[in-house]
Amino acid sequence: MTASYRSLNLVLLGPPGSGKGTQAAALAERYDIPHVSTGEILRDEVRRGSDLGERARAIMERGDLVPDEVLAGIVLHRLDREDCARGVILDGYPRNEAQYGVLDDILAELGRSLERVLMICVRDDEIVRRLSGRRSCPECGRVFRVDELPTAEAQCAGCGATLVPRDDDREAVVRERLQVYHDKTAPLVELYRRRGLLVEVNGEQSPGEVTEALMQAIGTPVTV
Ligand code: AMP
Q1: What is the position in ligand 1's atom list of the atom closest to the CA of 56?
Q2: 82 CA from centroid of ligand 1 (Å)
Q3: Are residues 199 and 114 in contact, defined by beta-carbon separation less than 8 angstroms?
Q4: For this structure, is 166 an active site residue?
Q5: What percent of the chain has pLDDT over 70?
Q6: How far apart are CA 76 and CA 103, in angstroms?
Q7: Is residue 142 classed as helix, strand or coil in its secondary structure?
Q8: pLDDT value for 145
Q9: For residue 116, what are the β-bridge partners?
Q10: The pTM is what?
């Protein structure tokens, strides 16, 4: 890959628990562009108790998708901010065909386009295993793995709050989120493949190896 990018706009695709959040954070640091997680934006609204958060809470707790028009507003507003001018790593958006179309429209409106869609592949059994072993911080949203924590009652390494399982990481909800992923999000893989944008990476390697594979798929970093 010898291409260079004026603005590096990436979508990370993959089932819940495939490591999109971890990888998006690593890539954001590497390429110095923001990591935009729609799930994190929504969880923040829930934590703050905003009207939007109140509407989203029950939908998220049962593992379903928040309405497309809510997400369209969030994504347009976020991508239009100054810090996204050199690019963005989208994590959790688009999640269905309607959002797929909206994202193209938003990027066209902003005079930008998608450079790559990175698909992190992980099998369902592994997803269920991973998500039931995940703890998150109710204050700052950081995510940890149970088997990497010193005790079951661990504190957040970032802000010190006591870690809890995320409401939507219980097994029944994980299965529902996986079903929603297979029904609604997985079909986007084919649409992006046909446009020549898709790169698939094995998500069942160490986080560092996945990051390496993703960076190879992206190629040359932003040069402007
Ligand atoms: P995530 O952190 O990406 O797994 O998202 C957590 C939850 O937030 C999802 O299960 C949905 O309820 C909601 N959510 C996040 N992104 C979207 C989206 N693009 N469209 C609809 N709902 C979303």
Answers
A1: 12
A2: 24
A3: no
A4: yes
A5: 95
A6: 8
A7: coil
A8: 85
A9: 10
A10: 0.85
